[in-house]
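pasting for ref
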Amino acid sequence: MTPQDLALGLHLLSATGNRTYWRILKHFPVLSSFWTAPIERWRALLDDDELAACLDYRANGEQGYWWERIQSERSRCAETDVRLLFPADEDYPPLLKEIHQAPSVLYVRGNAATLSLPQLAIVGSRKATPAGIRVCETLAETLARGGLTVTSGLALGIDAAAHRGALASTRRDGPTVAVFGAAVDVIYPRRHRELAQQILDSGGALVSTLALGTRAHRYHFPERNRIVSGLSMGALVVEAALKSGSLITARLAMEQGRDVFAVPGSVFNPQAAGCHALIRQGATLVEKAEDVVQELAAMLDFVRDEASPPAAPLVNGIETGLEPGQARVLAQLGYDDRHPDALASELKIPVPELLSILLDLEVMGLVENRALGYIRVPGPG
């Protein structure tokens, strides 16, 4: 039995299968030694169902009930175009792999490669105000246009607004990822079935750790939140009450060493109280997309260096293949800091449009955001 089969088998037995998998590997780094270990050692590591299943496999191998259950789940995934990802797989999301006891099994519908793109979690209240939804959609659209993949939980309110904003970015290469508190073949809430399909059609992905057919339950959501933050370079909270799942996601992001951002709101809005609390605790206050990109610049550079294809050739110092607006902005930039307001005035374009273009160029590695403004990155041309 491979580590992947063991991970899936333990996962199908109980909700604690993930912890058991990592506990086994801690004691038996060479998995083959686990299968020959004395039963007394198994008893110290496994619960009753897990012990019975492992004994069944030791006695009956591929003729036993446990192996049959593992292969049945694999077959169901193949029939429904669901991919299984395991920590030992090369394309398992690298940031998620860094967290403590990373999910031992990921079920993925859609483009699994999206999970390795630079991601930002955007979360918030299910009872979002119209203003909060508008802010969220605007931020998500701008960030997605700049190359960040927006990750959220497909819930009502801010989560759905984050996905919709990312989808409005006109990108066609995975602008958003939805992590479920149900199985990936059980869309929850049901009213978001069309939104889930739009995510798939855009090249995005639907993700869960739950076996096929598993319905949503409140005790699934803490793990969902842990994956949302674990996949992402940072978490942006847009409207959250003081006691909310969004603040749990933010806390998990902090524990995972990720940046946390929060959008302030009215002092009279209880849905802004959680964001204000995060800001008091050190979260970065966000008024525009640039605030996020500036904080994530170093990690964006690292991810871009790891994953980006070689740059296009330069003609007169300008990269070919740019959109006209991008080439115009890049040509106007020099090697001294330029504030976006001054640059927008010179180019006679709105500041929000300019910031979106600058974000595109920054993700491409063509410009750099510094304390006093943007500069062009020197190239070989």
